[in-house]
Write a structure and sequence with these properties.
With 128 residues, this protein is α+β, with helices and mostly antiparallel strands. Helix 1 packs antiparallel against helix 2. It starts with a helix and ends with a strand. 19% of the residues are buried.
Length: 128
């Protein structure tokens, strides 16, 4: 009878450990999904800013963003919103022939603490 009790305690312990591991995996997946959602929202927000200032698409590129007030505020928001691993999230904004085509590509890369790098890419066309 003592052996049966020990075996049942062992089976119960394995089940509890499996549930704890499942909970940890769900928490990690939820955190990653939240960061992806935030990156999607931030990219969409930048596209909205570009549509509002369609004549100055060139000022939203990666090199010019710091000199554009709205774009600089957006970059600060990205830094505060996305998780970091001792490095700031990397944002790349490219426009292709803004005068005619208005093709825009936004790439946001972030690395959560103790995690792998994640990337969100949005491409759209903004016609002036």
């Amino acid at each position: 009878m003592l052996i049966e009790v020990l075996i049942s305690v062992l089976i119960f312990s394995v089940g509890v450990v499996a549930l704890v591991a499942l909970q940890a995996a769900m928490t990690r997946a939820q955190t990653e999904a939240k960061a992806r959602t935030e990156a999607s929202y931030l990219a969409t927000e930048l596209v909205g800013l570009m549509w509002a200032d369609v004549n100055n698409l060139g000022s939203y590129t990666t090199g010019s963003c710091a000199s554009n007030t709205q774009c600089a505020m957006w970059l600060a928001k990205v830094q505060q919103t996305l998780p970091t691993n001792n490095t700031a999230p990397l944002v790349t904004v490219e426009t292709v022939d803004a005068a005619k085509l208005g093709d825009v590509s936004i790439t946001i890369t972030w690395r959560p603490p103790n995690g792998d790098a994640h990337q969100y890419v949005m491409s759209t066309s903004i016609k002036p």
